Amino acid sequence: GSPVPMDASEVVVLITNSKVKHELSGSEYPDRVAQCKEATAVLSESFPQVSELRDATLEMLESVKDGLDDVAYRRALHVISENARVEGAEVALKEGDFEKLGELMVASHNSLRDDFEVSTPELDTLVELAVGFGEGVMGSRMTGGGFGGCTVTVVKKEQADALAAHIKEGYKEATGVDCEVFVTRPGPGAGPLAL
To answer: pTM of the predicted model, to two decimals?
Structure first.
């Protein structure tokens, strides 16, 4: 893909570090790969054009649901719906529709939590605090591979400091942990520098 600019002087991205990293047994990622491959195999039996989940639609997945166990179905549901959300986010960014972007972010987090099962109670708390703040918050979601780490929240610039304080206070109260909050602005990304 190509870079999608986030042209908005009125919004910033709040990055919140949960300061939590859950110890994994080592099978979490390989298990998800295997579950996605299982769903792909079932889909490709009915739809030979599907060689990866990115080739499938939600309608295709629903038509083979009875041939999948619940976990493989939910893993595939996340991947297929996440691909659609990413495409929707690209359109929203190009149109400057940050409300739509925020809706997609929250839907993404919910799917990562419920269908792909890589969120944590701490990440969920951070997203709930951000979205629950209301005024000026467009959306929030976990970022990265899950099982701890950070959230990203799109918020109106004038609300960023109040939101950061709200999150810090609420997170400390809920978890006993001091989170870190960084206010950032999107940039053009990596590129060559003239020396």
So the answer is: 0.91
